[in-house]
Amino acid sequence: MTGWKPVFRAHAPARRLLYSGSLGSVSAQMPKEFFITTAIYYTNSSPHVGHAYEMVLADVIARYHRLKGEKVFFLTGVDQHGQKVQQSAAKAGVPPAEFVKGISQKFVDLGKKLDVQYDDWAETISDRHKKVVRGILQRLFEEGKIYKDKQAGYYSVRQEQFLTDKERRPDGQFGPEWGEIEFREEENYYFKLSQHKDWLLRYLENRADAVVPDFRQTELRNAVEKISGDLCISRPKSRLDWGIELPFDKDFVTYVWFDALTNYISFAGYDAAHSTLNSQPATFRDKWPALQIIGKDILVPAHGIYWLIILHAIGFPDDQMPQLLVHGWWNLGGAKMSKSAGNIVDPFVLVDRYGADALRYYLISDIATGQDADFSKERFIERYNADLANSLGNLLNRTLSMISQYRGRKLARPKSVESRPLDEYGLHVSPTLGLTEYVNAMTDSAPHLASQVALNLTVQCNQIVDAARPWVLAKDSAEREHLDKVLYTLAESLRIIAILVSPVLPRAAHGIFDQLNWKMELSGKEERFRLDDAKWGGLPDGHVVGKPVPLFPRIEG
Ligand code: MSP
Questions:
Q1: The CA-based dihedral angle spanning residues 242, 244, 250, 252, taken in that order and rounded to the nearest 10 degrees
Q2: What letter would DSSP give residue 22?
Q3: φ/ψ (deg, to 5) at 230
Q4: Is residue 511 within 8 Å of residue 494, measured between CB atoms?
Q5: In 3D, which of 409, 391, 393 has the Cα closest to residue 401?
């Protein structure tokens, strides 16, 4: 494949696929379940395209692992406590509990709308979560890892943390990333963070892919070197009461990060009563460690420092640390989308107008994982029309129309096409079909490159049609087998393309299978697609295809 460039390798070595020629074969050391998480979304305002991207990215990776036959546990959800939520609720004039219900529902709706198939939904106001957060805090308190102290200083309302001089820019000011700053004096509880600094540096030294892409790991390491103070983990109820009450002091709630980060284990079955991983319930051990998808804004300090240190402090060994896959932002006009800046793109409007697959495709194919991209409606329509309408949709339509017109919908599989597709038309996909590149791209969490493999196949098939000119072959009885070969090649390629695009375009993949009249007994079900079936020659001789129905109508204007 031209332009193929491996970007980085995601997923912990322990869960790496050993690709050994037979697709989908997995190594014996794999955990029983592939556990993947997104960040949990603040319920202070409605979702935008940036949130949609993160959910879809995780969904594509999760679907790919299911495609390989793995058991997957995909966790996403909402972050419901904290000052921002309390403030937004007050502004709306409703109690926080009611306010978060409304916004949480919008995130649930977004997942549904985008065909995001998660296995569990994290809501931090739920009892099972609170129990784990309290249990962990109590344990750390009893072990002397949490203490009470008084602090006076500048506080970032947006980041919900006190700021020190280290956060100041060279001009002495705090940067805009901290939002509104106010002076506060408070008694609070602190988690002994800085004593784990050396451990974290060592851990990052020993595990090169703790964070991917690797430039993010470098960024994290630089930040870890600057750790000096401990982490304030509480807020007095007099200031913030929308949170989880500390188990050892009813006048305080826990500060947002200790609450939010814990979701990754509380919803996976972690039991705070057990301090070693070996004594955790099997349901938890079968899943952990997770691949965690987060945006670049919450690597430092939240996930890269607080989360890893919290896990270390509560007894997780180094080889059981999660891997952090850090994606970039979808910007609008060069700036990060945010409701307060008033530059958001509403994913609901796009899906209502163009369909879930169209938005999924754009969000996945037009950004390189780890990098930023600028959202553009023109570009969205351009990619849709070029790749989906003109290339994939057109290939399906013309292939089925020709099989119907020239062969009464029945495929013949000449011997010469059984093992290899049409070499004479330069179908380079033979005999590997680009599958190695596809698997590598997915393993690298680079679904934009994997989509490109499927698209390349599609483009080549359309070129075959143009070069072979089946409408001419159909007029010449001496070309009968040649035409059979062309038609079989196209239909069989479409079957394989459907499998390859299924993580990104689940609806279209079902549409292609339906129209090919393939595996109809599994229609609509996920088991319909298996990476192992992406091998040449699956359609049998005499297979009868269905009728063509437009899959991706062109977007005009
Ligand atoms: N609630 C915290 C995360 C707690 S995780 C234990 C939070 N929430 S958020 O709603 O602000 O962001 C959630 C995720 O969405 C983050 O990973 C963030 O990077 C991602 N995105 C928010 N805006 C985005 C874009 N414009 N583009 C891509 N991702 C973006 O932070």
A1: -60
A2: S
A3: -95, 175
A4: no
A5: 409
Q: Which two tokens stand for residue 3?
A: 């332009």
With contact defined as beta carbons under 8 Å apart, do 188 and 149 qualify? Answer: yes
Burial bucket for residue 516 (CB in 10 Å: 0-12, 13-18, 19+): buried
Which residues lie closer than 8 Å to 149 by C-beta, 6 or more apart? Answer: 187, 188, 189, 190
**How far apart, in whole angstroms, are the C-alpha atoms of residue 428 and residue 421?**
9
291 phi/psi in degrees, rounded to 5: -95, 120
Burial 525-549 (b: 16+ CB within 10 A, else e): eeebbbbebbebeebeeebebbebe
- pLDDT per position as a tens digit, 7-54: 444 454 333 332 222 333 333 345 699 999 999 999 999 999 999 999
Q: Encoding tokens for residue 39? A: 């960040």
Please list every protein residue whose CB sits less than 6 Å from any atom of ligand 1.
39-42, 50-51, 53-54, 79, 260-261, 263, 294-295, 297-298, 329-330, 336-337
Rounded to the nearest whole angstrom, what is the distance from the C-alpha of residue 528 to the centroid of ligand 1?
A: 33
The rounded radius of gyration (Å) of the Cα atoms in the chain is 26
Instruction: Tell me, in angstroms, the distance from the centre of ligand 1 to residue 50's CA.
Output: 7
For 379, phi and psi rounded to 5 degrees? -65, -40
As beta bridge partners, residue 249 has 246
Beta bridge partners of 295: 327
Residue 347 and residue 47 in contact, taking contact as beta carbons nearer than 8 Å: yes
The C-alpha angle with vertex 529 and arms to 528 and 535, in degrees rounded to 5, equals 125
147-157 burial string, b = 16+ CB within 10 Å, else e?
Answer: eeeeeeebbbe
| Cβ atoms within 10 Å, residue 21 | 7
The string of pLDDT tens digits covering residues 441-462 is 999 999 999 999 999 999 999 9
Tokens of 390: 């003109």
